[in-house]
Design the sequence.
């Protein structure tokens, strides 16, 4: 003990070699404190090698006394050697039981052959619970029966991971017993193991695993079931599997099964049910339409559109089997659909509308029909890929086309729709085509009103409208709108919108462009003094001082001359060309193009945007109606 505490192992080895009483030495070694033991099996092996085996001189009744301390200290290799000398069945069971509970796999293997036959199941259960699969295989080797192997699999399914369980089954279970193993695995819902074992199954036997496949149809998840069906599925199970998967909503598996070949009646039933229930989030779900006839597709189209299955609609449109009237009916149903405006989230709907847009031979006819029906949002979305693409398509529109760009509806003309959608680059092209930028909608709102109320880049839209020359005509439009029956139209004018949104930059742009005068600014200030917004901190700190400054400062002669020249240049989309032809210096040309308003204050725009979102909830229902 003293030598082991100081770790003087060479001295201990010499002591073992010179010791004559081997039994006494072995007994003392086994009684050493556990904290002082280092490589305890070395002592016993030294006794074995030097003295021709300590167990030769050790009596059988003494081995029993040595077995308890060996087990307590975990000397499992020595325990196996003691069991080899022969002990009672009771002592053997004691050693095996303790080893099954505590021993690692490698030293446990020599002890397992001493397991009593009547304790076989108990030992097997303990090994399975600990996950010692190598020891389980050693225990079953040579004693393997069908009952024991299936019982081991049953016990393993309760606690084991699927990967070691699969290796154990493939190593110790004959292939002819796989059908019983499948029964156990399907009851436990271990589908990964089922899928791996199907590769080792007997090929060509449709009846052997029919029950397994039917159970998979009933309970397996969609991904695992699809893999099982592709791996092995008897033909007799196909039709029943189609109905079961339809009931469970596993449409990807239904698509796979339909390719195996089913009756026409069942295929039509599956397609009709898919139109009502499937989400069509993957290509596999839409593959079930690949074998449908043209008449069948025409019959299911209304159902697909009605239930918003736009992915399937967009894919089926590529087959080009519907005439113009049917295609237009699809567009109308898309507009009426509850999900028709969810373009950002619904990828299938966006593809459907873009599919109509790309039909250049019928594009003008579609656009004309949409404008006649007032489908403004749908019209913009069908052509809204980028501003450059839109500008090219609009510029390519022929005067004798069915597409009337000058049409004015309840929401104004096409400029109003584009301005509300943020497509500001396309506006000059439309003005060149003859669209009137001074037109108003049914409420009397002008293009500047739409730009001021826009949620996307209102300053950019205002600048684009100002450069087309609409600023100096705003006073006349507001005067006509004030005389109309719309009593709340004043609060939709550009200046009140800028005040509510606390955009001082927009106020400056409106003032410099002639859209509002000093008198209108004083009038707006007096009207807002009676509203709750006049008591908000942002209005008191930023808006009110700026309004007072604009109202008190007379317009400069330079600014007044710019407004007069701009008004006489007229409203057109090619004002830049007209200004360049004037005999003026470059600095004055840039001034006439309102280049000073283009130098936006980035910090001011960012602050105004943050304030807008901060106060949106509070002023959402200002004056009894929604502002934006």
Sequence:
């Amino acid at each position: 003990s003293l030598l082991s505490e100081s770790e003087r192992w060479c001295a201990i080895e010499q002591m073992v070699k010179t010791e004559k009483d081997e039994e006494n030495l072995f007994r003392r070694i086994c009684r050493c404190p556990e904290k002082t033991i280092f490589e305890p099996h070395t002592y016993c092996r030294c006794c074995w090698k030097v003295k021709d085996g300590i167990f030769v001189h050790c009596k059988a009744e003494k081995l029993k006394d040595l077995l308890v301390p060996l087990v307590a200290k975990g000397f499992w290799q020595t325990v196996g050697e003691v069991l080899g000398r022969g002990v009672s069945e009771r002592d053997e069971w004691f050693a095996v039981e303790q080893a099954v509970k505590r021993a690692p796999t490698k030293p446990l293997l020599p002890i397992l052959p001493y397991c009593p036959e009547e304790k076989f199941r108990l030992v097997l259960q303990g090994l399975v619970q600990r996950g010692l699969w190598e020891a389980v295989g050693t225990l079953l080797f040579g004693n393997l029966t069908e009952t024991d192997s299936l019982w081991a699999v049953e016990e393993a399914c309760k606690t084991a991971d699927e990967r070691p369980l699969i290796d154990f089954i493939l190593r110790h279970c004959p292939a002819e017993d796989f059908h019983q193993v499948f029964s156990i695995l399907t009851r436990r819902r271990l589908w990964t193991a089922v899928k791996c074992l199907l590769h080792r199954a007997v090929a060509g036997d449709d009846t052997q695993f029919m029950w397994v496949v039917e159970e998979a149809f009933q309970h397996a998840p969609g991904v695992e079931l699809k893999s099982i069906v592709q791996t092995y599925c008897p033909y007799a199970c196909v039709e029943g599997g189609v109905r079961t998967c339809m009931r469970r909503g596993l449409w990807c598996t239904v698509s796979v099964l339909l390719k195996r070949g089913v009756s026409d009646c069942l295929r039509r039933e599956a397609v009709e049910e898919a139109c009502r229930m499937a989400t069509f989030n993957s290509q596999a779900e839409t593959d079930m339409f690949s074998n449908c006839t043209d008449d069948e597709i025409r019959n299911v189209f209304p159902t697909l559109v009605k239930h918003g299955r736009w992915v399937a609609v967009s894919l089926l449109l590529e087959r080009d089997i519907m005439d113009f009237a049917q295609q237009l009916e699809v567009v109308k149903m898309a507009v009426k659909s509850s999900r028709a405006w969810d373009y950002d989230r619904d990828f299938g709907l966006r593809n459907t509308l873009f599919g109509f847009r790309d039909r250049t031979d019928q594009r003008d006819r579609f656009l004309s029909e949409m404008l006649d029906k007032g489908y403004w949002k749908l019209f913009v979305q069908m052509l809204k890929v980028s501003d450059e693409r839109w500008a090219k398509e609009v510029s390519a529109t022929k005067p004798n086309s069915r597409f009337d760009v000058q049409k004015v509806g309840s929401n104004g003309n096409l400029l109003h729709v584009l301005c509300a959608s943020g497509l500001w680059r396309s506006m000059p092209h439309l003005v060149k085509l003859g669209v009137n930028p001074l037109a108003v909608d049914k409420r009397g709102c002008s293009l500047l009103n739409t730009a001021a109320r826009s949620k996307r880049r209102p300053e950019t839209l205002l600048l684009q409208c100002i450069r087309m020359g609409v600023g100096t005509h705003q006073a006349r439009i507001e005067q006509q709108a004030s005389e109309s029956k719309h009593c709340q139209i004043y609060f939709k004018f550009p200046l009140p919108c800028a005040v509510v949104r606390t955009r001082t930059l927009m106020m400056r742009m409106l003032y410099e462009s002639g859209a509002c005068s000093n008198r209108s600014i004083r009038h707006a200030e007096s009207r807002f003094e009676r509203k709750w917004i006049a008591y908000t901190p942002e209005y008191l700190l930023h808006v009110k001082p700026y309004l007072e400054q604009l109202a008190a400062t007379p317009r400069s002669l330079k600014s007044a001359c710019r407004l007069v020249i701009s008004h006489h240049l007229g409203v057109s989309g090619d004002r830049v060309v007209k200004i360049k032809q004037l005999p003026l210096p470059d600095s004055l040309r840039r001034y006439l193009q309102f280049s000073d308003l283009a130098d936006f204050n980035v910090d001011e725009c960012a602050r105004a945007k943050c304030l807008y979102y901060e106060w949106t909830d509070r002023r959402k229902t200002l004056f009894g109606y929604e502002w934006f």
